[in-house]
Amino acid sequence: MTDTSFVLPLLLALPVLGAILVMLVPREEHGLHRGIGLVTALATFGVALFALALFDGEEAGFQLVFDLEWIAALGVHFKVGVDGISIWLVMLTAFLLPIVLLAAHRSVSHRVRDFVAIMLVLQTAMIGAFVALDLFLFYVFWEVMLVPMYLLIGVWGGKRRVYASIKFVIYTVVGSMLMLAAIFYVYVQHGLTTGEYTTDLVQLRELVLPYGAQVWCFAVFALAFAIKVPLFPLHTWLPDAHVEAPTAGSVILAGVLLKLGIYGLLRFAMPLFPLGAAEAAPFIAILAVAGIIYGALVAFVQEDIKKLVAYSSVSHLGFCSLGLFTLTVQGVSGSIFAMLSHGLTTSGLFLAIGVLYERRHTRRLSEFGGLWKQMPIFAALFLIVTLGSAGVPGLSGFVGEFLTVFGTFIAGETFPAGWDSYLPAPKLLAAFAATGVILGAVYLLYMFQKTMFGPLDNERNKSLPDVSRREITVFAPLIAMIFVMGIAPRPFLQTAEPSVDRFLTMYESKLTQPEAVTPYAVEFDEQGNAHRREQPAAPGDAAAERDGAGDAEARAERTQR
Amino acid sequence: MDATQPPIYLIILLPLLGAVVNLVVGRKLSRRFVSVVGVGSVAASLAVTVSIIAGPLWAQYTAAQAGEAASPWLQQTLYTWIETGDLRIELAFRLDTLSALMALIVTFVGFLIHVYSVGYMHDEPRYAAYFGYLNLFTASMLVLVLGENLPVMFIGWEAVGLCSYLLIGFWFEKEKNADAGRKAFVVNRIGDFAFILGMCLLFYATGTLSFADFQGPEAQRNLLEIFMWGEPVATWAGILLFIGACGKTAQIPLYVWLPDAMAGPTPVSAIIHGATMVTAGVYMVARMSYMYASSTTAMAIVAGIGAVTALFSAIIALAQSDLKKVLAYSTVSQLGFMVTAVGVGAYVAGIFHLLTHAFFKAGLFLCAGSIIHAMSGSGDIMKMGGLRKRLPLTHISFLAFCLAIAGIFPFSGFFSKDEILVGALTADADGWWMYYGEFLWLLLTLAAACTAFYIFRVYFLVFSGESRADAATQAHIHESPPLVTLPLLVLAACTAVLGFVGIPKLGFLQDIGVGNAISAWLDSSVRSGIVPMEITDGGKLRVMGLVLVVAISAVLTARALYARGVSPRLEAWTSRGPWARVHKVVSDKFYVDELYELIVLRPFRALARGLFVFVDRFVIDTVFVAGPAKVVDLVGAAVRKVQNGQVQRYLAAILVGSAAIFFLASRPAISFEHEQVEPYEVTFEAMVDAGPASVDAEIEWDFLGDGEADATGPEVSHRFSRSGEHEVTMRFRDGVFGRWRSVSRTIEVAAQEESQGAGARDRGAERGSRQ
């Protein structure tokens, strides 16, 4: 443990401390609540920047690791750390929260204290989920996140908030319950095989589970994460949740929470169960592409702007899932970059919708039109985030989409498992995914035209004020980052690359490693007491001993199929 | 970035800075300042371009010609844009003879259009935004032209699409204009989609996207590898990139956005049709000539699409009554000429025509702006006439442009069009159909005839005869201010003389030292994969003469029919009888837009709506989400008390439930095997599944059925006192929960030794190893 290990715990503690402080302030002091919230969020962002400064971009492994024994009896640790992938997601989270709190200045006017406190707790939970290196700890953060989000939709939401929040909770809980069972299974298997019961991810991912177990466990993990992503056809909770959530909730939901699904697949599901992932990769890729096209098509027919953007998230997250399962450097990097970019552009879109909603209390496209004349500055801001989302080169959206399509196109060349059985498919999938480029332009420009262009013929729109100074402040950092990520994407990609490489080489090497052997009969000593086998043979030897050649062949056959 | 390199990036940066200033703070600045920034930045860019070409590039070029420098181009790398894995994309620019010529066209014609705009847009309330977009447009096109690799070119490629979106829909209060802008962007995006895939394929096959590398032997080898259906990479990449070009360069079937694009301000049409955007596809094919050289199939497709487009849209232009619409279809047609040229490997001819067309088409649109301005905003040529006297300067320049586009000697279009026709006629490549080159030539010659006819139809309808406008409009007719007419005259002067940079390569002329300057200039930057057939001076002259005769006859026909308004005989033809129907089909543009509406747009909307209503709302939400919820609801009626909406209870339930799952998952299955080893003597072996509970477990055996433990341990043997059936019970105490569980079985004990148990044991072992 190095002397920098305090950074991440500080990052996790700050928002919670802020939340406690907010709760101590009397209920009526709204200004003070907001002030404390904003200062805390900014301080957290400062700490995150500090962490980024300490982070060594050349290094592939986990850094700034903090490890503390938590539940000794179960081998559970409070272990956190970041690598080149999670550091950016932490940055994104820390970056968005001050913006969200500032944006909620007018839209949230009741129960401000609770709102600020909940947002801060949510912040800790999200960052926690990104930095957790212990499976159990991750699960705790993962579940804790659910509660503030549920409250956010349920308390500050729209008319159908109860339906939306319950749908959100049920969808998510169904996935995470099954995942919990799989976590237990992995825990027990690891304990039996190595004699050490632990939930430490770094140790757990050394274990190569038997093929069947990998497939099932992966399926269960993938279900939980796919619901969160959301992968088509598990997406229907998302539009409802978005429409009912307040702007702040939507931004956090689209900006950060959805990324946890992709991140979970990348960090947990795929490294733990690579054989399962290899089996599932083509299917998930197909679902991802279906989601790209489906989300875009359905977005096009929405009358509610927020729903339109929600479905656009389904489409964009399809790119993220696709990139991940191409198992190429470009695809995975593209997926990560697309996540970051989507975090910026979609947040921008939701904030823009928030601006419109605060003024007109409607989100129906037909209520707007010709607003450019009335709100030129807003129109310019809205246009930039729209184009960023549509993937115009020079803005952030393009790089992720391009790399994903590129990675898909070359998939199957670099990795032997899974894809090669569908060899013409990667190119076909890339072609289908690339239609997202066309469809993105179709629905986003449709949205923009219906709100900003055309005659300004609705009387109620003729007196709308343009964006205020505060609102410009909200948009400015987002737009600056959309440009920065589009013009100079290399630092982001380069920092993530060692970790991506490591992810891929580990994945690849685990595909060819022999499966672990678990003693399935109990051994007994002379007195008749049962014991776990004292010294388990090294996994490789045992596999060879048992039916080595046949087994290896069977696996080779599987991967070629 | 190498400091000794000339600052190529400045060519782009200057208009880009102009755009930033005008877009960000322009609203607060005076018009004069905005104009100075807008025009000045392009003028400065032009100056930088000229100085770099005249200085360093010329030096490099001559050095390379003399064999002293490795490459005849300049290159500048700013920084690495994208890098991941082996994919490395530099933000680099390349100035060679081809891109230098393009940059000159863009900055020079662009500069004139900027000047014109100062006069033309003087009443526009969003003046600064207009100039900002215009500057951005110029900068984007320069990125496209100067980019050293396909992705950098693609930045400009998409950015010009974006600028066209903003400028075509500039007067967005009218829904129609906004629609046109959106259509332009979306149709371009269809092309861009293919362009992206083309880039993927090229990198996949060759490992590079840099133009310089495509010239290398390694990439050339890789391009020839078979990719699909017996065709090499070059063919497929060529087709994909060309689909991209079809979008930008408005070729069949993606030309539909360009005629609508005249919804923008007229100078915008001029800059789209003349200086920027539409020439991008032609330029791209020329830029990638080293790849297209590897695939005659791709070239045949390029050339075929170009020639068909040239004729098809020239026919449409014959029957349009809107001035700008005629010009728009004329552009599509002229672009078809250029695309055919690059398709048959006559790159020099294609770029030459691009050059001459940039001048005369920009000029035609600027004249159209002046005319429409004079006619109080109407572009209906049927309501014009007699403008020769009223708009003398506009008239004289318009006439020059018309002569050029019709291909009348010695105006520039004559030379460039002739080169293309010769190129098509002499083209022949492996694997092409017989007479394919001749067929292309025929199509183009017909298109050239149509061109001369429709443009002089417009000329006579607008300028000669009597005015057909109403009195109010007539009273308002006036020549435009000098800022508007000056660029016209400059363009007209250029159009008159520009052709002489491309004097045909005729033996007797070369003997006296008159060569084709543009060919000599461009040869180092392109490579034709098609060696043209030999053609004699006489043959060339005959081609020239033929097309000149055809053009002049078309002009004379137009004069006969339109010199005094539409002639009565023509009127009769087009209003009644079989010709009326043909005329209607042509003037309705062959119903292509309607066809698209029917086979693309409507199904698309129906599909999108159907997916939402049926799949999202019904299948997923009703059947799969609400359906189980209904079932749960019924069950829930029984346990309503638990469902009190308190999250902490749910979390408690989560914990309890997880514990239960853990418990069940960790409960090992128990059983035992037995084998009779001797008469009355049977051995027993406990079979216990893995799981935490099997650690430190205890096992007891009861052979007598009395409930007492007769033996302990996993493997025991027992000697029974009699043969026959016995009830044997194994009891198991797990190590975690300490609970006893038992399994009983009746076994048959024989007086003689039997081997019945062996099979069972084998099966058990087998089961174990599978897990």
Description:
By secondary structure, chain A is mainly alpha-helical. Chain A folds into two domains: 3-510, no CATH class; 514-560, no CATH class. Helix content of chain A is 72%, strand content 4%. Chain A is built from 20 helices and four strands. Chain A has a two-stranded antiparallel ribbon. In chain A, strands 3-4 form a two-stranded antiparallel ribbon. In chain A, a hairpin with a 5-residue loop joins β3 and β4. The longest helix of chain A is centred in the N-terminal third of the chain and has 34 residues, at 161-194. Chain A is globular and about 75 Å long. In chain A, 62% of the residues are buried. With 771 residues, chain B is an alpha+beta fold. Chain B has a domain at 671-770: Immunoglobulin-like, CATH 2.60.40. In chain B, 64% of the residues lie in helices and 10% in strands. Chain B contains 30 helices and eleven strands. In chain B, strands 8-7-10-11 form a four-stranded antiparallel sheet, with no helix packed on it. In chain B, a hairpin with a 6-residue loop joins β10 (724-733) and β11. The longest helix of chain B is centred in the last third of the chain and has 47 residues, at 592-638. The radius of gyration of chain B is 40 Å and the shape is elongated. The chains are: A mainly alpha (561), B alpha+beta (771). At the A-B interface, α5, α6, α11, α13 and α15 of A face β1, α5, α6, α28 and α29 of B.
